[in-house]
């Protein structure tokens, strides 16, 4: 136990100090998360890259074991496949997250790296070979072992990433998962797994000192994807040492909250015709705040309580027989059902509108794809405007304006395009979408509705953000040309 405590304290101190250093450097260098979207819950720029401290805190005491001449150090080095898998895979995932935090990574790059790492882990022996059946014998996967393992690793990585929406939430959720694995490993006498979990627990708590509400730093994708990777990999090793009656049920239950939130997001977006990788404010933590009128901190504490319940259920499954496991699962199922009803996920009154919402969103997605393609092909700013102009009719906008600005000879010049439509006479609802490229503001899209609406739907907002991104990308290129050849730009308003 002394070794575990020392490992925990070393990881805690490294994470604590590095979080403070990274926070100060991120502020100085402008590496902050801007509060520029309605789905953001913070109202001021917050430094990101706190995941660097988590990764360093985790690896610091483990690297020290390579130089310690002791029984524990020898035992750690003897598990070569486990060590290689966690170190190389962890570095790869953390590097991907760091690149995403600094430059932005598309879904294709993320999934390519994640699946490549998952395949490497499978080759090293991290795999799912049995599916639990509390009512009978476990089911061997056979040839399905590879796809199931890949889906588990990639799924958990992205589940922790998705749950990272409130101060301290992802770290707290991961800590409960770590606690479950530590207790199970301690009971089985698995010293190496206990060391790994002690190191990760210390790294998480050192970061949470600065990340709990009100947070002064975020972990970013560097931290959330790394935590998901380690938990996914360790859970596979833990499940292989469980009784076959609960194989994979224990890790699934230990990570119940992020898995449940991810599945709900996938179903919600599929049913409503939304892009699978789009962001929204319909996650469990968002609904706790909006439907149950909880504060930021209260919502996180409630979810901590739910994670504790999942942890107790996971531990119970590990020690229960088949009948007791079935009772635990039924009880947890009832709790989840009640929670879903409270949060409005099972609201039958909204079922009648799902079909129309889906058709509307599909039409909107098609429009955005066509507009974005036309914007990126535009050879001048007026052509960019002509590509954007159909938004007015598609969204039933009374006034649509695109305003761009650029520097010339030390002065800021504005270029404005606008169109008016007869679309109602109610009080206007105005929306501004900033046009930004690489954190540089190029202008904004301004839309005004007069049809009596009080807010813009998240689907419409997402569509506008995507169009704005396309406009920013093309306008930045055209304005750069204009600065090199000033005669090509003419201020106009039409």
From TrEMBL:
TM spans (from-to): 52-75, 82-99, 111-130, 137-163, 169-187, 194-212, 245-267, 299-317, 323-340
Record localization: Cell membrane
Pfam families documented for this protein: Glycos_transf_4
GO biological process, one term: cell wall macromolecule biosynthetic process
The organism's place on the tree of life at top rank: Bacteria
Alphabetized UniProt keyword annotations: Cell membrane, Magnesium, Membrane, Metal-binding, Transferase, Transmembrane, Transmembrane helix
A GO CC term attached to the entry: plasma membrane
Topology versus the membrane: Multi-pass membrane protein
UniProt entry tagged with the keyword Chloroplast: no
GO molecular function, a single term: metal ion binding
Binding site for Mg(2+): 161, 221
Protein's UniProt keywords contain Cell membrane: yes
Cofactor: Mg(2+)
Entries under PANTHER family matching the protein: PHOSPHO-N-ACETYLMURAMOYL-PENTAPEPTIDE-TRANSFERASE (PTHR22926), UNDECAPRENYL-PHOSPHATE ALPHA-N-ACETYLGLUCOSAMINYL 1-PHOSPHATE TRANSFERASE (PTHR22926:SF3)
Name the record gives this protein: Undecaprenyl-phosphate N-acetylglucosaminyl 1-phosphate transferase
């Amino acid at each position: 136990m002394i070794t575990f405590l020392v490992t925990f304290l070393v990881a805690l101190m490294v994470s604590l100090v590095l979080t403070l250093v990274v926070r100060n450097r991120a502020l100085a260098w402008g590496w902050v998360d801007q509060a520029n979207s309605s789905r953001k819950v913070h109202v001021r720029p917050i430094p990101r890259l706190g995941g660097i401290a988590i990764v360093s805190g985790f690896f610091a005491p483990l690297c020290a074991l390579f130089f310690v001449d002791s029984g524990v150090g020898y035992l750690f080095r003897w598990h070569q496949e486990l060590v290689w898998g966690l170190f190389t895979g962890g570095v790869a995932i953390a590097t991907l997250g760091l690149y995403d935090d600094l430059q932005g990574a598309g879904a294709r790059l993320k999934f390519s790296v994640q699946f490549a790492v998952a395949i490497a882990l499978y080759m090293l022996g991290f795999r799912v070979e049995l599916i639990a059946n509390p009512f009978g014998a476990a089911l061997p996967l056979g040839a399905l072992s590879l796809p199931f393992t890949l889906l588990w690793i990639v799924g958990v990585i992205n589940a922790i990433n998705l749950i990272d929406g409130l101060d301290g939430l992802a770290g707290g959720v991961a800590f409960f998962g770590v606690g479950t694995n530590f207790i199970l490993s301690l009971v089985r006498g698995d010293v190496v797994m206990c060391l790994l979990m002690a190191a990760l627990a210390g790294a998480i708590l050192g970061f949470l000192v600065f990340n709990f509400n009100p947070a002064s730093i975020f972990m970013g994708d560097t931290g959330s994807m790394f935590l998901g990777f380690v938990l996914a990999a360790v859970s596979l090793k833990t499940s292989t040492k469980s009784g076959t009656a609960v194989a994979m049920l224990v890790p699934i239950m230990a990570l119940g909250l992020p898995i449940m939130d991810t599945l709900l997001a996938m179903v919600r977006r599929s049913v409503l015709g939304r892009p699978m990788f789009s962001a929204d404010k319909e996650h469990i933590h968002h609904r706790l705040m909006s439907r149950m009128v909880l504060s930021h901190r209260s919502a996180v504490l409630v979810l901590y309580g739910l994670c504790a319940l999942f942890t107790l259920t996971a531990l119970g499954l590990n020690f229960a027989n088949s009948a007791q496991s079935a009772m635990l699962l039924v009880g947890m199922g009832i709790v989840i059902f009640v929670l879903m009803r409270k949060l409005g996920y099972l609201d039958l009154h909204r079922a009648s509108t799902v079909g129309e919402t889906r058709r509307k969103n599909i039409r909107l997605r098609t429009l955005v794809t066509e507009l974005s393609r036309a914007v990126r092909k535009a050879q001048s700013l007026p052509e960019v405007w002509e590509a954007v102009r159909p938004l007015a009719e598609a969204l039933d906008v009374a006034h649509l304006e695109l305003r761009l600005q650029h520097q010339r000879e030390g002065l800021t010049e504005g270029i404005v395009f606008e169109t008016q439509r007869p679309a109602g006479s109610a009080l206007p609802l105005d929306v501004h979408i900033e046009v930004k490229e690489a954190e540089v503001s190029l202008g904004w899209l301004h839309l005004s509705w007069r049809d009596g609406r009080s807010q813009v739907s998240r689907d419409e907002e997402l569509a506008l953000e995507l169009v704005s991104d396309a406009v920013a990308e093309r306008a930045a290129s055209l304005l750069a040309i204009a600065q090199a050849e000033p005669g090509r730009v003419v201020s106009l308003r039409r």
